[in-house]
Write a structure and sequence with these properties.
The chain contains 23 helices and 21 strands. By secondary structure, it is an alpha/beta fold. It has a domain of 184 residues: Spore Coat Polysaccharide Biosynthesis Protein SpsA, Chain A. The strands form 5 sheets. Strands 1-11-9-10-5-2-3-4 form an 8-stranded mixed sheet.
C-alpha cells in the first residue's frame, strides 16, 4: 500500500445518536446571535434564495442554468406565490407522521440487550430501497450480510421492528420461466421475503421509487422520514448515513459539513444533480421533500434530466427570484417560516465534497469522507469495501427466538436419553418454526411454490412463529451424487432444529387451510390424547407424525419434532440408512418409518395411527376445520397445490370449502 495514502479510519461516534433537541438549542442561539448565519445555512435572504455550491438553495453568484431566467421577474409571480402558500396550507391540513418513533417503539442500530425496544408502529425513520435486476442474487446476499447483518434465514427477520425498513426493488422483470435462474430467484423470494417485484416495463428511476414509497402508506400503512435509495452497483456506508441524519449534520467531520434545518429536517434532498445517469445511482430524500416532488412533478419534470430530483433542483434555481418576490412583502419571521417549509434543502455532491464518489478500481482510493461509492461491479470489490470501511450492520429486526434451548453433548452409545431441561410442552412462540422446502426441482412447481410458501409465512406471522424456507440443503445433494434430492429435507431439519424448541415440517405441497388453528391449541389436544397422560407426553415425546388410514407407513410430508438429544441422534441415525438413499418411491420417508419402529425410538414418538385430520389431511378426506391439507399426488402437485391455495383464500373470506374444491 502506498505510504502517502492513510489507512481508512471510521469516523468517531458512528452508531451513536445525538438528540435533535440539542441541535435546536444551538441553532436557536445562533439565530439570536447572528441572523446572517441563517442566510448562509441555505434559507431565505434578499434578493435570492440561498443555494450554496455544495448545499443547495441558490446562493448569490450561482450561475443560472440554461433553463433559468433570473434577471427577469417571473410573469407568474402571483401564481407561484399562491402555489407555495397552497402547499403550506396543505401541509397544515395533512396528518404527517411523527418526526421520530416514540422511544417505546424505537431501537438503535446495535441496542443494548437489556434495553431492546420493539417498533410496531409501521413508521420508520429510514426506508432503504435497493434497486436491482432479478439476476443479481449474489449481490443481494452481500448487501443483506454487510448492511443488515443477515447472514442466513435460520433465525429469520419476520417483520421490521426497528426504525429501519428495507426492500430490494426488482425491476426489469423476473428471469425467464423454466430456467435455473428463475428457480433460484423464486427460492430467494420464499426464503427472505424482501423482494418487491415491479412490472417488467417499470424503470428504476427517482419518480417511480418515490411514488412507490408514497404508495406504501395506502397499501400497507407504512410511513417513513428519510428514503435512502441506491442501485445494485452502489456501495453505501448505511450506518454512517444513518448517524449523520440522526445527528442532523452531514459530513460532520469533513471540511464541508452541512447542518440540517431544525424546523423542517425532512425537507431534504441529498445527492448529485449533474443531469447524468449517475444522479439516480444513490440519493436521500426526506418525506416532506418527496411529497413536494410528487405534487409538483408536472412543473418539475419540464427539465431536461430524466432524474426527478435533478429537475427539482433546477426548478428551484430557476424560480428563486420569483419566490423571493412572493414572500418579500411578509415579515421576516413569516417569510423565513414559509421558505423553511416549502423550499427543500439541497445537499449537492457534484463538487469537491468527496462524499459521493465513483469507484476507481482500487481500495486505496477510498477515504473516510466517502459515504457512497458508485459503479462497483464485482462482488469481491463490494466485500472489500465493506471490510475496508469497517461498515457496521444496521439492525432491521429482532430475532424471534428469545430463549434458546441449552447446548447438548453428543449421546454415547450406552447413554440413556434424558428429557429436555423444561418439561413443559406449552411451546413458546418465539422458539417455534414452520419449516419447508424452497427448492424447485423443475418447471412443475414454479407457478405455485412461492404462493404456497406465503401461505405458511402468513400463518407464522399471524401467530408469532418463525418461518424458515431452505433450498441449499436440497441443492447440495447434487454434490453428494449418492442419493435423491428429497433427502435434503433431513439436512434442513438437522440444520434448523437446534435453533428452536419445536419445528413443524411441511412439504412444499402442503397448504394450511385453517389459519386460526394454533400450535398451542394443537399441543393441548395432543396432550389429552396421549395414552400415558400429559406428564408422560411432556417428558417423553419428541416426534409426532401421522400414518393415514390405509397407508403402509407414516407420511413424512407434515410432522412435528422437538429439539432434544434423542431427536438429534435420530436424525444422525436416519442419515446413515443408505439402503433408502435411492429406493423409491418413499426414500427418506421409508427410512424414517424403519427407524422409528425400533423400540428405543417408538417410546419417543407419538404415532398418530390411522389419523386423517390432526395436521396431515389428504384432499379427498378433507372436512371443514381441518388444519393442513397435504396433496402429495403421484404426478406434478402444482395444480393440486393451486386448488388448495384457492380454497384457503375462500376460507379466509368466510366461504365454505369441501373436498370437492380440492380436486
Amino acid at each position: 500500500m502506498p505510504v502517502d495514502l492513510p489507512l481508512y479510519k471510521p469516523e468517531p461516534g458512528v452508531g451513536s445518536k445525538r438528540p435533535r433537541s440539542n441541535k435546536r438549542l444551538i441553532f436557536g442561539l445562533a439565530l439570536v446571535g447572528a441572523f446572517l448565519l441563517f442566510y448562509l445555512n441555505i434559507r431565505v435572504s434578499s434578493p435570492q434564495i440561498s443555494i450554496t455550491q455544495e448545499t443547495t438553495i441558490v446562493s448569490p453568484g450561482t450561475s443560472p442554468t440554461p433553463h433559468s431566467n433570473v434577471d427577469e421577474p417571473s410573469k407568474d409571480t402571483t401564481s407561484l406565490h399562491n402555489s407555495f402558500l397552497e402547499d403550506e396550507d396543505d401541509n397544515e391540513d395533512a396528518i404527517d407522521p411523527p418526526l421520530t418513533v416514540d422511544q417505546d417503539e424505537q431501537t438503535e442500530a446495535m441496542p443494548d440487550k437489556s434495553e431492546i425496544r420493539i417498533n410496531n408502529s409501521k413508521h420508520y425513520t429510514y426506508l432503504v430501497v435497493i434497486g436491482s435486476p432479478a439476476q443479481y442474487m449474489s449481490r443481494r446476499r452481500l448487501i443483506r450480510d454487510k448492511y443488515f447483518g443477515l447472514k442466513d434465514n435460520l433465525l429469520p427477520c419476520m417483520q421490521h421492528d426497528t426504525d429501519v425498513y428495507y426492500k430490494f426493488w426488482i425491476h426489469g422483470g423476473p428471469p425467464a420461466s423454466d430456467t435455473p435462474t428463475r428457480r433460484e430467484y423464486e427460492a430467494e423470494k420464499m426464503e427472505w421475503n424482501d423482494l418487491v417485484q415491479m412490472p417488467p416495463k417499470t424503470q428504476f428511476n427517482q419518480l417511480n421509487i418515490i411514488q412507490w414509497a408514497d404508495d406504501l402508506f395506502k397499501e400497507e400503512g407504512i410511513t417513513y422520514e428519510y428514503l435512502i435509495v441506491q442501485d445494485i452497483h452502489t456501495f453505501v456506508r448505511l450506518s454512517t448515513l444513518r448517524h449523520e441524519l440522526d445527528a442532523g449534520v452531514i459530513g460532520e467531520n469533513t471540511e464541508s459539513p452541512e447542518t440540517l434545518s431544525t424546523e423542517a429536517p425532512l425537507n431534504l434532498v441529498w445527492g448529485t444533480f449533474s443531469g447524468q445517469p449517475i444522479d439516480q445511482s444513490a440519493f436521500v430524500v426526506g418525506s416532506t421533500a418527496a411529497k413536494l416532488a410528487l405534487k409538483k412533478q408536472t412543473e418539475i419534470q419540464i427539465g431536461s434530466s430524466k432524474a426527478l430530483l435533478t429537475n427539482m433542483y433546477n426548478y428551484f434555481l430557476k424560480h428563486d427570484n420569483s419566490l423571493e418576490k412572493a414572500v418579500e412583502s411578509m415579515l421576516p419571521e413569516a417569510a423565513a417560516e414559509i421558505k423553511e417549509k416549502v423550499v427543500p434543502m439541497f445537499v449537492a455532491e457534484d463538487r469537491e465534497t468527496h462524499r459521493f464518489v465513483r469507484w476507481e478500481n482500487n481500495i486505496e482510493s477510498i477515504s473516510s469522507k466517502n459515504n457512497v461509492v458508485t459503479h462497483v461491479y464485482q462482488d469481491s470489490e463490494f466485500a472489500e469495501l465493506a471490510a475496508w470501511t469497517s461498515i457496521e450492520p444496521v439492525l432491521v429486526c429482532h430475532p424471534r427466538r428469545q430463549n434458546p434451548p441449552p447446548p447438548m453433548d453428543p449421546l454415547d452409545d450406552d447413554e440413556t436419553v434424558t428429557a429436555p431441561v423444561s418439561n413443559k410442552v406449552a411451546i413458546r412462540t418465539q422458539s417455534t418454526a414452520i419449516v419447508t422446502s424452497s427448492f424447485i426441482y423443475d418447471a412443475c412447481m414454479e407457478p405455485s411454490a412461492t404462493m404456497a410458501a406465503m401461505n405458511k409465512r402468513d400463518y407464522a406471522l399471524r401467530h408469532g412463529y418463525s418461518f424458515v424456507a431452505r433450498s441449499a440443503e436440497f441443492a447440495q445433494q447434487a454434490i453428494r451424487k449418492d442419493r435423491k434430492t428429497v433427502w435434503g429435507k433431513i439436512d434442513v431439519i438437522e440444520k434448523v432444529l437446534p435453533k428452536y424448541e419445536w419445528i413443524l415440517w411441511m412439504d412444499m405441497d402442503a397448504v394450511i387451510l385453517n389459519q386460526d388453528r394454533t400450535l398451542e391449541a394443537l399441543f393441548e389436544e395432543l396432550q389429552e390424547r396421549y395414552p400415558d397422560g400429559k406428564e408422560a407426553f411432556d417428558r417423553d415425546v419428541d416426534l409426532i407424525v401421522a400414518r393415514p388410514s390405509g397407508d403402509p407407513m407414516i407420511n413424512a410430508g407434515v410432522f412435528l419434532m422437538r429439539y432434544s438429544p434423542w431427536s438429534m441422534q435420530f436424525l444422525r441415525d436416519l442419515q446413515g440408512i443408505v439402503e433408502w438413499y435411492n429406493k423409491g418411491s418413499s426414500y427418506e420417508q421409508g427410512a424414517m418409518w424403519d427407524l422409528l419402529r425400533k423400540p428405543e425410538n417408538l417410546k419417543r414418538t407419538f404415532l398418530l395411527d390411522k389419523d386423517n385430520h390432526t395436521f396431515n389431511t389428504f384432499p379427498s378426506r378433507y372436512k371443514a376445520g381441518d388444519f393442513i391439507v397435504h396433496f402429495a399426488p403421484d404426478k406434478c402437485p402444482n395444480d393440486a397445490t393451486l386448488s388448495g391455495l384457492r380454497a384457503a383464500d375462500k376460507i379466509k373470506k368466510g366461504e365454505t370449502v369441501t373436498a370437492a374444491d380440492l380436486k
